[in-house]
Amino acid sequence: MAKLVVGTFVTVDGVMQAPGGPDEDREGGFEHGGWLPPHFDDELGGFMGGLMGRSDALLLGRKTYEIFAAYWPNAGEDDPTAQKLNSVPKYVASRTLQTVDWNNSTLLAGDVAQEVAGLKERLDGEIHVTGSGNLAQTLLKNDLVDEFVLIVFPLVLGTGKRLFDDGTIPRGLRLTDTQTFPVGVTAQTYERTGEPEYGTVGG
What we know:
Elements lengths: L2 E9 L30 H13 L2 E5 H10 L8 H8 L2 E4 L11 E4 L3 H11 L3 E5 L2 H9 L5 E7 L18 E9 L5 E9 L9
């Protein structure tokens, strides 16, 4: 059975919308796109390359798929990230796309939660979700995520799509790894542990 890993760039206040560029996703009037590049360096890039190297399959929402499919096939064969992304199996969750043309891509038809649950049963290794905010919300609401890798950037935006939004099922998490980079970014890895525990301070 495969493990489903959600790896996401987020701000300190949890915003994950449009990290890569001003026009990446302006939905909801978002005006802060492109908040990632000023904080990205080679060390963080190496970490991301290692994270990507762990993936045995990718699961993408429509917007992230379209961004990736427009860039990575043309990135050059000498780019190890391009080699990985272009060759790995990719599963695309979309209600609007009719076809997916990027190499080794499969369009998921029907109920997304059921399709992903089936993928986890059929596949081995790790299925990685990158970006794909709407898809991540669906996976969270259906309790399908096994591990989170949160790459937290040192800024607060106040508005925008958040990873842990209303409707997220309460779950306990266990911190399994943390790394800090010179640019002030931290990478925090959490495994799901089950129901949250509650108590009273001083009780």
